[in-house]
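Design job #97: recover the sequence.
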C-alpha cells in the first residue's frame, strides 16, 4: 500500500449511534479510500461501538484499522496510540460523535500542499444545539498567527496537522488530563508551525451535541477543570515568553475556562471546594493576569478574578449570588470614572485596588439592565398634558445629567441585544424638555429619576428613552414597561382635540402615540366645494 495522504484518528468510547454517521462520513470522503487511513481506537466501550468499528474494518480492510483497549479515562491515550500507527503525510483528529463534510479532507490536503501549511483549519459548525466559536471563519486565509487572530478560541485538535511536524517535535496528548488534553497539543503545534491556514468556504466539520450530554467535558467537576486549565496555562507559558503574545493565548483561558468556574453554580459548592477553587484561580491570576489583561477584561470578570486573588471567598460568593439574583450592581460615578459597586469595593479588609472595579468597556448593557420603570401616569393642566415617570437607574453618585426624552424612530438593530447604545461623537439627541430630579435611592441600589415630559399635540409615535452621561460618554436607554400597568389612553385639548396612549411595543419598550381625534380625509374639501358649486348652478 502506498503512503496515504491523511490518517484520521478516532478515539471512541460509547458513542453509538453517532459513531455510524462519523465512520460513514470518513469512508465516503471525496479524497478516496486509497488516499485515506482511518485508525479507530475503542477505549473500552460498553455499548455497541466496538462491534460497529469491527464491521467497518471488515468492510474496508485496507482503509480502516481498529484497536481495542481497556478504558483509559479520556481521549488522550487512544489518540496517542493511534499516532504510533499513523503513516499518512497528514493526520486529522475527529470526535467519534461528529462527522465531516464530503469534500473536507480533499480540500484541506490540497490547501496544505498548495500553501506548504503545517496546520489547516476547516470551518466547523455546531449541530443539535452545540456551540462552536465562529469568529475565526471570516474568510479563507493562507497564513495566520496564533497571536493576532481568533485561533486561541478554537484550540480543539480537530484540524489537519502535517505529521512531519508532529513527529519532529514529539507532539503527544497528556494522558493525565481528563479535560482539555487536546489543547497542549494544538497550542504547541501552532507555536511551532511554519504556516497555519484557515478555510471558511465550505463546512468541513459538524460538531454534534449528544442528547444525553455524556461527553466527559460536561461531567468534569470544578476542581478537575481547574487543575486541567492550570496545566494548559503552564504548558503555554513554557512555550511562549511573557509578553503580548502569551497574553493573546492566555486571554482565552481567563475569558472561558476560568470564567466558567465562577458562574452561579460556584455558590452551590461546599465551602471547602469554593475555597480551593478561589485559591487555584487566585494563583493563576497572580502568575499570568498581567496589567494588560486586567485592563482589557470586563469589570464583571475582572472583579471576580481580583477577589479570588485576594482570597476573599465570602465577597466572591456574594458577588456571584447577588448578580445572579438581582442583576448587575449600580455604577458609582465620580467625574469621568465609573465604578461597579461589587462587594469589596474600597474595603480595607479585602484590600483590592479600586482600579479592579473601574469600568473601561462600554456600559450599555448594564445601564439597560439597571434601568427600571416604577410608574407612569398622565398629568393634565388645562391644555397641557405631561407624562410623569418614576425610574430607577443603575448608577449612583452624580446622575444629574440623566433626563428622559420622547425620541422619534426605532433603536438601531445593533442595540437590540444590550438594550442601549452609546451615542457616537456628534450624534444628535432629543432636547431635554420638562423637569427632571435625580436623587440617590435610599437602599443604595442606584438613582431615582423623577421626570415630567410635556406631550405635544401632533401626530407621532415616539419611544420613551433615558439619556445619561457615564464616564464621559452619553448612552441612550429605551424604557421597558416590565409588565407594569400602563395609564389609560386619554383625550386632551379643546382647540385641537388629541388622543394619547402609552403602550409597550413588541420588544416591551414604552411608546407614546399621539393623534388628532378628528382629521379631514385628503380631498374631502375639494369634493365638498364641487358639490356646493353644482347645487348653486341648479
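Job complete. Output follows.
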Amino acid at each position: 500500500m502506498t503512503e496515504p495522504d491523511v490518517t484520521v484518528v478516532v478515539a471512541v468510547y460509547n458513542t453509538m449511534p453517532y459513531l455510524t454517521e462519523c465512520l460513514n462520513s470518513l469512508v465516503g470522503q471525496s479524497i478516496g479510500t486509497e488516499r485515506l487511513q482511518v485508525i479507530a481506537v475503542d477505549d473500552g466501550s460498553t455499548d455497541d461501538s466496538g462491534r460497529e468499528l469491527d464491521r467497518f474494518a471488515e468492510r474496508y480492510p485496507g482503509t480502516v484499522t481498529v484497536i481495542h483497549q481497556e478504558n483509559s479515562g479520556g481521549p488522550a491515550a487512544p489518540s496517542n496510540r493511534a499516532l504510533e500507527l499513523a503513516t499518512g503525510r497528514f493526520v486529522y483528529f475527529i470526535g467519534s460523535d461528529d462527522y465531516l463534510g464530503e469534500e473536507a479532507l480533499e480540500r484541506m490536503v490540497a490547501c496544505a500542499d498548495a500553501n506548504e501549511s503545517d496546520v489547516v483549519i476547516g470551518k466547523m459548525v455546531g449541530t443539535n444545539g452545540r456551540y462552536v466559536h465562529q469568529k475565526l471563519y471570516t474568510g479563507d486565509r493562507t497564513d495566520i498567527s496564533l497571536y493576532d487572530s481568533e485561533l486561541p478560541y478554537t484550540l480543539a485538535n480537530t484540524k489537519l496537522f502535517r505529521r512531519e511536524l508532529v513527529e519532529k517535535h514529539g507532539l503527544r496528548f497528556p494522558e493525565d488530563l481528563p479535560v482539555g488534553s487536546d489543547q497542549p497539543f494544538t497550542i504547541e503545534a501552532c507555536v511551532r508551525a511554519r504556516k497555519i491556514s484557515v478555510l471558511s468556504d465550505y463546512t468541513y466539520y459538524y460538531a454534534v451535541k449528544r442528547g444525553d450530554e455524556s461527553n466527559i467535558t460536561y461531567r468534569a467537576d470544578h476542581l478537575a477543570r481547574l487543575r486541567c486549565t492550570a496545566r494548559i496555562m503552564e504548558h503555554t507559558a513554557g512555550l511562549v515568553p511573557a509578553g503580548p503574545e502569551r497574553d493573546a493565548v492566555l486571554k482565552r483561558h481567563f475569558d472561558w475556562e476560568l470564567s466558567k468556574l465562577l458562574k452561579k453554580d460556584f455558590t452551590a459548592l461546599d465551602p471547602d471546594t469554593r475555597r480551593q477553587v478561589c485559591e487555584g484561580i487566585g494563583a493563576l491570576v497572580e502568575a499570568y493576569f498581567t496589567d494588560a489583561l486586567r485592563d482589557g477584561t470586563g469589570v464583571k470578570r475582572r472583579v471576580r478574578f481580583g477577589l479570588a486573588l485576594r482570597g476573599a471567598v465570602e465577597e466572591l460568593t456574594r458577588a456571584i449570588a447577588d448578580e445572579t439574583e438581582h442583576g448587575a450592581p449600580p455604577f458609582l460615578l465620580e467625574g469621568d470614572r465609573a465604578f461597579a459597586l461589587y462587594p469589596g469595593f474600597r474595603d480595607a479588609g479585602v484590600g483590592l485596588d479600586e482600579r479592579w472595579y473601574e469600568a473601561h468597556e462600554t456600559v450599555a448593557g448594564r445601564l439597560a439592565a439597571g434601568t427600571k420603570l416604577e410608574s407612569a401616569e398622565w398629568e393634565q393642566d388645562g391644555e397641557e398634558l405631561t407624562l410623569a415617570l418614576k425610574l430607577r437607574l443603575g448608577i449612583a453618585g452624580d446622575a444629574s445629567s440623566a433626563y428622559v426624552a420622547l425620541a422619534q424612530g426605532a433603536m438601531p438593530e445593533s442595540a437590540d441585544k444590550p438594550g442601549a447604545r452609546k451615542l457616537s461623537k456628534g450624534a444628535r439627541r432629543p432636547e431635554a424638555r420638562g423637569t427632571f430630579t435625580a436623587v440617590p435611592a435610599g437602599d443604595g441600589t442606584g438613582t431615582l429619576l423623577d421626570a415630567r415630559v410635556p406631550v405635544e399635540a401632533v401626530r407621532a409615535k415616539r419611544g420613551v428613552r433615558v439619556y445619561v452621561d457615564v464616564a464621559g460618554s452619553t448612552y441612550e436607554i429605551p424604557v421597558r414597561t416590565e409588565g407594569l400597568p400602563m395609564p389609560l389612553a386619554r383625550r386632551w385639548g379643546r382647540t385641537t382635540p388629541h388622543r394619547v396612549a402609552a403602550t409597550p411595543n413588541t420588544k416591551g419598550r414604552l411608546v407614546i402615540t399621539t393623534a388628532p381625534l378628528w382629521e379631514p380625509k385628503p380631498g374631502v374639501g375639494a369634493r365638498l366645494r364641487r358639490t356646493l358649486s353644482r347645487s348653486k348652478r341648479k
